[in-house]
Specification:
Length: 454
């Protein structure tokens, strides 16, 4: 389907972070946009405010009349997470409509554009957001489809005036193989989504295929140590093509020097904590330098980058209480997050509330979760958030909890966890997870702010 022929769009799973970005994009293009999702969220609330019609009832009768027939110019976008039994999904599927996954639509949009694609089992949202911000802030400009809400812009989709687009290359369901980028960044290739891939080797093979799809004359930028060929490697404090070195913390901010064999940029300021974010930043610097953006403009843009919602986001930051919320849902993401917290606040007692995401991920990485969560001082574990999955017998949060080595650990529900925070008033609080744990953020923020006022 050609982009200019699309007149109306229905999104099944419109409340997803990537799907909501597409909804905004097509609305901006003047299309009729509406959709379905299982439950209302802050994201869907915002879409409704933007005059996008959303139903939360999985019934054919809720579909607007204009989508009743398979007419030319109608596009239906669906998330792979939608159940095969969905009545709305099957209405369109059986009606012969053009159904596309989000990744396929990104392929349509980016066709003919200079495409910068960021892939990786973790780090892609922050890295793509940094790249987009540097391009915007420097005056180079771009459009962007992001997997999170960029705090500088308070949105997950950016509209540019040039032919450059930044997209996340999602490895789930091999979605990124619909993209043929001019520049590709690969941040990580840790085992994940084994419910789809079966084995890490299959995941690795897909990343190698993605890397092979870079256009002739294009550039691959990848984290040092990944099993990829012909890429420009990057890392912090490692001997490779693109490096961050002399890393230090000053007044709660991270500073580092950058070099890539041709360019050195000294004393770069980054408000995002942790070595993993410094590595995300140097990948973005390399992209910007490749595009000819001046080092001074890159440095200035990084200094005013405010981060991404739910990526090490400060919710409360006072002399008595620090509360950070993060999307981490893989053991290595958790390790990076907790390490960053401990680096910034080595003398504070850390309370972590974690919600495991998916039964399969909990089953596959229970040992890794237990090890990493043992790094905290106090642990509250919530039930597994199932997302698209049905329960698996014997797989539960207790699998993780029983092997956590610290003594201050317990399994609670959300209401009990809020009560715990109310009673203990932790000086350093971290909530982590990719499910609906974000529903706790505002109540916990209010609890700690009430403590401050009293």
């Amino acid at each position: 389907m050609e982009l200019n022929n699309i007149k109306q769009v229905y999104l099944i799973g419109i409340g997803g972070i990537g799907m909501s970005g597409l909804a905004r994009y097509f609305k901006k293009r003047g299309c009729i946009v509406c959709g379905y999702d299982k439950t209302p969220t802050v994201l869907t609330d915002n879409l409704v405010l933007e005059d996008i019609q959303i139903s939360f009832v999985d019934e054919v009768e809720t579909i607007p009349a204009s989508f009743g027939n398979n007419e030319e110019g109608t596009l239906v976008i669906y998330t792979p997470a939608i159940p095969a039994t969905s009545k709305v999904f099957n209405h369109f599927k059986n009606g012969g409509f053009t159904l596309q996954k989000r990744s396929q639509v990104l392929g349509i949009i980016s066709r003919g554009m200079f495409t910068i694609a960021v892939g990786g089992t973790h780090g892609k949202t922050t890295t793509s957001s940094i790249i987009a911000h540097v391009l915007k802030d420097s005056g180079y400009d771009c459009s962007a489809f992001l997997g999170g809400i960029a705090s500088n812009y308070n949105t997950n989709v950016l509209f540019g005036t040039n032919n450059t687009v930044v997209v996340e290359a999602d490895e789930y369901d091999r979605s990124f193989l619909t993209l043929h980028p001019d520049i590709a960044v690969i941040t990580s290739m840790d085992a994940d989504h084994l419910d789809i891939y079966g084995h890490k080797d299959q995941l690795t093979e897909s990343f190698m295929l993605f890397a092979s799809q870079i256009k002739a004359g294009g550039k691959l930028i990848n984290r040092n140590g990944l099993p990829l060929n012909n890429g420009f490697t990057y890392a912090a404090n490692e001997d490779c093509a693109i490096q961050a070195y002399d890393i230090h913390v000053k007044q709660g901010e991270f500073y580092f020097n950058f070099k890539n064999g041709e360019t050195t940029i000294e004393n770069v300021q980054l408000s995002l904590p942790g070595l993993h974010n410094i590595e995300n930043a140097i990948a973005a610097i390399e992209v910007a330098l490749h595009l000819g953006i001046a080092a001074g403009k890159i440095k200035s843009a990084l200094a005013n980058f405010k981060g991404v919602k739910r990526r090490f986001e400060y919710i409360v930051k006072t002399a008595n209480h620090i509360y950070i919320d993060d999307y981490a849902h893989h053991p290595e993401e958790l390790r990076a997050c907790i390490t960053a917290v401990k680096t910034l606040y080595p003398d504070k007692n850390l309370t972590t509330i974690f919600q495991p995401h998916l039964f399969t991920r909990t089953r596959d990485f229970a040992e890794g979760f237990s090890e990493v969560l043992s790094m905290t001082d106090n642990l509250i574990l919530l039930d597994i958030y199932p997302a698209r999955e049905l329960p698996i017998e014997g797989v539960n949060s207790e699998m993780i909890l029983k092997n956590v080595s610290i003594s201050n650990k317990q399994k609670l529900d959300m209401e009990q966890a809020k009560e715990y925070v109310k009673n203990t008033k932790p000086e350093l609080l971290l909530t982590v997870g990719a499910g609906d744990i974000d529903m706790m953020v505002k109540p916990l923020q209010k609890l700690l702010q009430d403590v401050e006022e009293n």
